[in-house]
Amino acid sequence: MEKIFSHCEISNGVNFNVIKDERFKTGRVSVTMFLPLDSKTASSYALLPFVLTNSCQKYPNFTSLNQKLADLYGASLFSDVSKFGDMQALTISVSFLDNKFALDEENLSSQLTKLLCDVLFDPLIENGAFKQEIVEQERRQLIELIDSEYNDKRILAKTRCEQLMCKDEKFGISRLGDKETLLKLTPEDVFDAWKTALRTARIEIMALGDLDESSALENFKNAFSRINRENVINYKTQIIRKATKIKEQYDDLDIAQSKLVMGFRTGAALQDDEVMPVRVAVALFGATPQSKLFLNVREKLSLCYYCSAKYDRNKGIMLVQSGVEKKNLKRAKDEILNQLDEIKKGNFTDAELDDTKRSLANSYRTIGDFLSGLENFYLSQAFDDEFLPPEQFIEKMYKVSREQVINAANLITLDTVYALVGNEEGVE
Fold first, then answer.
1. Residue 242 and residue 244: Cα distance in Å, rounded?
2. Is the Cβ–Cβ distance between 235 and 200 less than 8 Å?
3. What is the mean pLDDT of residues 411-420?
4. Could you tell me whether strands 14-20 and 129-130 are parallel, antiparallel, or unpaired per DSSP bridges?
5. Quick check: do 5-224 and 247-421 share a fold?
6. Which of 119, 376, 114, 115 is nearest to 221 (CA)?
7. pTM over 0.70
8. Residue 109: what are its φ and ψ, rounded to 5°?
């Protein structure tokens, strides 16, 4: 298959990445700024992308900005905050109609990247800071988002497990900051966060679709030429390869279904040789419909309403999430550990391993069905030595041997057990 990915550095620590794909009727361009997770700055950085996408100098209010997007064939502007190892990732992106479908040969990708640059580099400033009313508006929205994640008990249990597991690591800090700090933030604080981010963040620009990448590249080059980028932050994540002491915490809550989350250290992270074998081991364990957790803990023993495992290679951890009746908490925990032990002992068939690999291969193949999937896939490799297409991941995955899977499973150690314990009469 023809390589669709290209990459170049346009400023110190700023990379412009093109994923060329002619299958789509839309294009997508995103700018992601990577900054260290820190309890002092997490809230201001989390608020920043939402403030920036509210307005800018050229379009000084939300209405005029959205009218411009509507005029450009209904283009969309998005903002997001995520966690990438011990880094906070701030993303602003635009999605738009492919140039070939526009009237009069309009270059939509050029216009939308200019708009993205307007939002990023020329925000609406008043008295040397962001406008108070905009900060207030977006602060309320972010607090609502924090509250919504608290109200989703599945997310809440996962978050608390991560916080307990990584309480002395940056990874334990919420990507959204905290409400107490958010309420204290001034427009000046957020403005300072913006200036720091543009000067020091590691930045990945992703341009996807059948777009005019040359004009997009030129727009970003011109914009970044105005920024003095000297002290660019290097990616650094604390990796703990083996658990030494198991942490356990059970919190009572008025919910009908208990939430059990178990955190494991996998011994493999980032670009370690063991990462792909761990991926396969985790998939065999609990990341596919054919996994041991799904077939045994959920289906055969009926101990969980749901039960699955997810591997985070940037941090080198695995989380097992499950919904459990209160009376089954201990039994579910014990059986989850038992199923992991089965893999460590090699108690799985060649057919099970083959099914797992086919399932993983299918998941890699479907990455390219959506531009957002392609974006996330390549962005996940931002700090690797090279970018690999999904096809090469499949090749590497199929080369993983049975022995490698067993060895990888034996690297995995239980670190944390956390549960929101329901009363079986509560409400979700």
1. 6
2. no
3. 98
4. unpaired
5. yes
6. 114
7. yes
8. -65, -35
| 427 pLDDT above the threshold of 70 | no
State how far the Cα of 226 lies from the Cα of 233, in Å rounded to an integer. 19
Identify the pLDDT of residue 1: 37
How far are the Cα atoms of 21, 27, 268, 309, 370 from residue 18, in angstroms, in the given order? 9, 11, 29, 32, 15
Q: How far apart are CA 130 and CA 194, in angstroms?
A: 10
Encoded amino acid at 15, one letter: N
CB 416 within 8 A of CB 163: no
What is the residue extent of each domain of the chain?
5-224, 247-421
Summarize pLDDT for 334-355 with one digit per residue, the tens.
999 999 999 999 999 999 999 9
The partner residues of 260 in beta bridges, in order of sequence, read 322, 419
What is 5-224's CATH topology? Cytochrome Bc1 Complex; Chain A, domain 1 (3.30.830)
Count other Cβ atoms within 10 Å, centred on residue 217. Answer: 17
Rounded to whole angstroms, what are the CA distances from 124 to 109, 121, 189, 276?
A: 23, 10, 15, 46
Q: Residues, the chain, total?
A: 428
The CATH classification of domain 247-421, taken from the options 1.10.3720.10, 3.30.830.10, 3.40.50.300, 3.60.10.10: 3.30.830.10
114-153 in b/e form (b: 16+ CB < 10 A) is: bbbbbbbbebbeeeebbbeebbeebbeebeeebeebeeeb
